[in-house]
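step=encode ok
step=design start
structure_in=
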């Protein structure tokens, strides 16, 4: 696995490359992030997603797409959201860069547990 971090035009992007065991081919996998902690903090501080979107000069649809991994937050948006929600710089990773864990079923025989 190779992790590359790219910053261009104020957008931070993480890409994960996986190498196959046969032939060493590379496959690019888009990392998805778990924003549940961010959504909890928004509620905890008494905001709505729409209010946060307005505060960072985005429409609610764009904000929703980013929360649902259909877009990426840029550094300016992250800084503004952190300021509103009182998220410290050491906590940014927990709120914006926690990888989404894929839930897999465990099969015993022919039945999922």
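sequence_out=
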């Amino acid at each position: 696995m190779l992790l590359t971090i790219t910053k261009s035009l104020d957008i931070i992007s993480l890409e994960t490359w996986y190498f196959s065991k046969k032939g060493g081919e590379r496959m690019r996998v888009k990392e998805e992030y778990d924003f549940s902690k961010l959504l909890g903090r928004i509620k905890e501080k008494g905001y709505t997603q729409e209010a946060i979107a307005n505060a960072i000069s985005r429409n609610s649809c764009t904000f929703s797409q980013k929360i649902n991994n259909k877009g990426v937050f840029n550094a300016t948006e992250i800084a503004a959201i952190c300021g509103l929600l009182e998220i410290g710089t050491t906590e940014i990773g927990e709120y914006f860069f926690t990888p989404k864990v894929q839930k897999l079923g465990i099969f015993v025989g022919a039945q999922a547990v």
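step=design ok
step=annotate ok -> Residues 75-85 form the longest helix (11 residues).
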